[in-house]
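Dear all,

This email documents one entry for the complex benchmark we are building for the journal club exercise. For each entry we list the sequence lines for every component of the assembly. Then comes the predicted three-dimensional structure of the complex as a token string, followed by one or two observations. Please use this as the template for your own entries, and keep the labels exactly as they appear.
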Amino acid sequence: MRLMMLQLLAITITLISSGPTWGDELKGQCVEGERQALLKFKEAFGNTSNRLSSWTSRGDCCKWRQVRCNGTTGHVISLDLSRSYSNGTLRGEISSSLLGLPYLTYLDLSHNDFMKTQVPEFLGSLHHLEHLNLSSANFSGNIPYQLGNLSCLQSLVLSSNDFNLIVNNLDWLHGLSSLKVLDLSYVQIGSVENWHDALNMLPSLVELHLASCELSNHPLSLPYVNITSLEVLDLRRNYFNVTIPDWLFEAGHRLRHLYLSQNKFEGQIPDKFHNMKSLVSLDISKNNLIGPIPSTLRELANQRHSLLKELYLGNNLLNGTLENCLAQFSGLVALDLSQNNFEGVITEAHLDKFRNLKEMALSSNRLTINLKDDWVPSFELEVLRLAHCRLGPEFPRWIQPQKSLYIIDLSCADISDAVPDWFWSLSPTIRYLNLSYNHLTGFVPDLSSYISLIYLDLSKNNFSGPLPLFPQNINVLDLGENTIFGPISHVCAMLGVNNSLDVLDLSFNNLSGNIPNCWTYGQSLTTLNLANNHLSGPIPDSFGSLITLLTLSLDRNNISGKIPLSLKNCKSLVLLDLGYNQLSGTIPTWIGEELQPLKALILSSNAFEGYIPLQLCQLKELVILAISLNQLSGAIPQCVFPNMVVKQNTPYINGLYSRIDFEGEYISHPYLILHYHDLVPFALIWKRNYYVYSGHYAGDWALSSLKIIDLSSNSLSGDIPQEITRHVGLKSLNLSRNKLNGSIPLNIGEMKSLEALDLSMNQLSGSIPTSIATMDELQIWNVSNNNLSGEIPSGNHLDTFDSSSYMGNPNLCGHPLTSKCPPEESLQDSHHRQGQAQGWDWDKIHPFYLSMALGFITSFWAFWGSLLICSSWRHAYFHFLSHICDKVYIITPVVVAKLRRQFWSQQVPK
Ligand SMILES: *[C@@H]1O[C@H](CO)[C@@H](O)[C@H](O)[C@H]1NC(C)=O
Ligand SMILES: *[C@@H]1O[C@H](CO)[C@@H](O)[C@H](O)[C@H]1NC(C)=O
Ligand SMILES: *[C@@H]1O[C@H](CO)[C@@H](O)[C@H](O)[C@H]1NC(C)=O
Ligand SMILES: *[C@@H]1O[C@H](CO)[C@@H](O)[C@H](O)[C@H]1NC(C)=O
Ligand SMILES: *[C@@H]1O[C@H](CO)[C@@H](O)[C@H](O)[C@H]1NC(C)=O
Ligand SMILES: *[C@@H]1O[C@H](CO)[C@@H](O)[C@H](O)[C@H]1NC(C)=O
Ligand SMILES: *[C@@H]1O[C@H](CO)[C@@H](O)[C@H](O)[C@H]1NC(C)=O
Ligand SMILES: *[C@@H]1O[C@H](CO)[C@@H](O)[C@H](O)[C@H]1NC(C)=O
């Protein structure tokens, strides 16, 4: 009994002395000066400091939530203010009162907003610091060299400050002799001469992250980095366009994680993996690598006790037959071979040995997946990507037992089947589901219980039935090009309090009824595409709440009424497509005044009347203006649209980005990839082939060169304004079927980018300017049915057009018309020749040429737009196109020109 008492006493004493949590008055309690320092530090964050509410002027600061003290001395040793630790962003500056915490060893300020202030120099005086994390904290300016005084520092994270951190030299790194972890991702260290020398001075470095550091800027090759001590090397997204260097494969190192993805590494993958015994994960996806998977890599994976678990080779140009080697990877947990040129027929025999596979990505190769329905895999997948594989025609039953899937991509997989019921109850944790571009049938059931589902693409199938219910958390919902019918009233249910819906595409279905007026909650919506349905009624007023909307397309419905005034609140709109409806009234002036970012305005084929408002001239970004087939009258405003004046492509990327890309990966940086939204504006133009890009950086996007003015089929009168010829970047100008008079501007030939110029069916007079002959790109040229006179200019390209371009101008003469021009001296008498046109072959006038109505945007570019992208995107893109899903071919420019003509002449209306 006494013994027990003694023991209890002893335990109590130990507990009391062991830390401040036990309320010892003397030991381990906050030092007053440090509490004051913390309070002052908090003050600088103003009213954003709510989450530091436990920081009060009384009480033990060692008990405050984000603070830790040394249990013996009571000095503050750790401050963890990362947002990921608690909630709410701190916004403000770092107070120098931090210097009142001299024993700080751990300081994490990541994921806050320091408002582009500099990283303070005084941090270099916190000599005990071992961990400093300033990641994603909106710092900018120079990284102070004083950080080099932190000789105890073991980890330094300066990543993801939006490229705003600058380094002029890295010599200060020498002082960090204890450094084990260095993360400079998104800091532009590539501009530092010999950046690698500074890194090579760090003897104990274990982790090195240099993703997106623009290292390839200078020098162009990947210089030697001493990786002897490294376990993690991250060189993602640096756009190296060299071969993968040999030094990465030197003997004697213990690299465990090697990340080289999203560069432009070329050549073959070095066959030197025999030295890479420690390798756990290898990511060399998204490069330009060619050739086979090297045999040493296959052997490494195939070894008995191989450590290799993750292999990402996707999105390269690798080739070979997978049948021979797939089984060698059976020890892997993640295997990504997607978007390469692998071929083969994959059967159960190749997959039977896989036990631990969680991620299988074989999309976009030339693979046939031939698995028996009753095959039961011995692995449990979480990620399955078999897009563009030959998987069908039956829906793959072997997926049924896979209950952990959260990413499924079976798009464009040749499946022509009904989706079995079990599939829809597959996995409640599914996040990403893409079944697009198949021939799937059946009704889509109520999916509202799939609370994890954030991306659903069922487009381009034969799904039918009424619009199902979807979960409120969904980000991207694409049901385009199915036969879904009935009202859309319950889309409102998706626009719940979470405001998470980003993309809603229900285009090309049979939806009908009014668009509900319930968009007040759609405040994160960026793309709303309801085109090609049978929707009727007015444009709802509550669209005005969609302040983040970039793309609004209601094209080809039966929508009537006026454009509601509330739409002027949608100040982010880049594409506004209301074409082919029954909208009436005038074109609102506020479109020009308020919708400044607008790049494409499509109001064609409605019942708009009145003038084209002068205010449209204020749309500085505009590249597509299509208001044909209305009842507009008055003169063409003398606008000059700056973006059409330049020949350069205007990237559609600027300022647009999505939180999610095609592969369902979250994207944190807008520079990386072209996203869904950038492509959607063109969905309308080239049908829905916006399904394109995932992978390489495409700084320049050919489609962004589409520059179009289409004012055809109205009652516009007056002259063709001289200003229009300043739009030298324009690809297509259609003013046909109006009441324009006056003459064709003399310098029209300066619009050298024009591929289509249609001025037919007006009352234009005078002669055809000879400058036309210098327009080398012209494929479509029509001035028929005007009152033009004089000799048709000739030369160059112009000679390839036939008489149909000129029909119905009784006073025109010369090739290709049959009427000869009078000799030079009598030209001025040309008026007298009015009655002499009997020689004309009126029979040849095809109705088509009389009515070159513009389904131009939607049909011409549907075809031609697709061709344009091909030439620019090459291989990453080629993968996509080479698969069955798109009827797009890569053709030489010569054939293209021919085809364009052919295509155009097939557009002849009956
Ligand atoms: C914080 O204060 C600023 C100006 O002092 C004010 O604009 C802002 O609305 C306040 N924020 C909160 C959440 O109170
Ligand atoms: C606390 O401070 C004492 C005395 O300086 C030191 O020996 C001990 O290692 C410190 N403990 C921690 C957890 O830092
Ligand atoms: C997050 O914020 C809420 C409300 O402001 C608060 O009740 C909660 O305690 C905070 N959580 C943390 C971990 O700070
Ligand atoms: C970064 O700070 C600047 C300047 O205060 C501010 O305008 C910007 O919105 C901040 N960025 C982020 C992502 O918080
Ligand atoms: C730094 O902060 C970021 C963001 O909170 C976090 O992801 C990362 O793990 C931290 N790094 C270290 C080394 O603590
Ligand atoms: C790389 O660093 C190690 C020490 O970390 C050193 O022994 C070795 O000589 C260095 N290699 C080269 C080529 O500089
Ligand atoms: C690599 O990139 C640089 C700069 O971007 C360029 O000058 C060079 O021609 C490229 N080399 C190859 C082989 O593409
Ligand atoms: C792989 O591609 C290269 C050219 O990049 C070619 O020479 C080789 O024949 C291809 N191999 C196979 C198996 O297709």
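Observations: The pocket of 2-acetamido-2-deoxy-beta-D-glucopyranose (ligand 6) is lined by residues 203, 226, 228-229 (CB under 6 Å). The first strand starts at residue 67 and ends at 69.
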